[in-house]
Amino acid sequence: MKPHACYTICAAMEEALEVPKFAADRTLVRLAKWLRLMGADVLCEERLSAAEALALAREQGRRMLTRDKRLRTAPDVLYIQSHLFRDQIREVMARFPFDARRHAFTRCSACNDLLHEVPREVVVRRVPPFVYAAHEKFALCDRCGRVYWGATHLERALRELASIGL
Ligand SMILES: [Zn+2]
After folding, report:
1. What angle do CA 126, 131, 136 make, to 5 degrees?
2. Cα 66 to ligand 1 centroid, rounded to whole Å
3. In the beta sheet, which residues pair with residue 79?
4. Is residue 2 pLDDT above 50, yes or no?
């Protein structure tokens, strides 16, 4: 029997739901960028105070990550103890584990938009010639125009995750 037409769509939606949605306050910008590289959807706007970010997090169903002590006792907030980003990643993964290896490299670390794969020709003028020559696969962020390619971004990110035992 052929699978129902909805099957692939439902599977894709389920997959998207597996990756947690976070909001991080402005003291956690570096953590936010790393979680995005790992595939998580992370709202992090430096113009927002921690309290404003929390309000948005609640509105959008995001888990709030903060180092603001005033929010420490809020029941729906993960207060991050460490100021070191590697330990911060561990704290987040201990509480909200997800498969970072599977989802890595799907989101722009700078603006949180989803990346999409583009043909090499599209990025020929946007990356240094040695990068263009050395790589087959490129992904682009529509919002900021940042180009991602395997070796420098993905592998570095995965090495970093391996170094902290994830
Ligand atoms: Zn971007």
Report:
1. 95
2. 23
3. 66
4. no
Side-chain half-sphere exposure of 85, counting CA atoms within 13 A? 12
Cα gap 93→88, rounded to integer Å: 9
Instruction: Tell me, in angstroms, the distance from the centre of ligand 1 to residue 110's CA.
Output: 5
Q: How crowded is residue 165: how many other Cβ atoms within 10 Å of its Cβ?
A: 8
Residues 22/80, Cβ–Cβ less than 8 Å: no
For ligand 1, the distance from its centroid to the CA atom of residue 140, given in whole angstroms, is 8
CA–centroid distance, 100 to ligand 1, in Å, is 19
pLDDT in tens, 107-158: 999 999 999 999 999 999 999 999 899 888 899 999 999 998 875 666 777 7
